[in-house]
Amino acid sequence: MIRKLYVMLCDNEHGTGDVTLPDVCNLDSQTVIHTFVDGNTPRELRTAAKAAGWRRVNGGDYCPACMESGV
What we know:
Elements: E1 8-9, E2 20-21, H1 29-38, H2 42-51, E3 55-57, E4 60-62, H3 64-69
Antiparallel strand pairs: 1-2, 3-4
């Protein structure tokens, strides 16, 4: 089975994958299974990001920490 997973990366200085949504580095095994098997769509990812405090500014996606510091 091949599945596609969409992951959002923060466009600020940690755009190398340090800050992602979903946070793929800190997922427990059960959540990994759910995230990768169920997958998501770009629209679902944007909705989850907005609920988690991510914002889109001038075409870039920024994590909540960057939004607090005033991108």
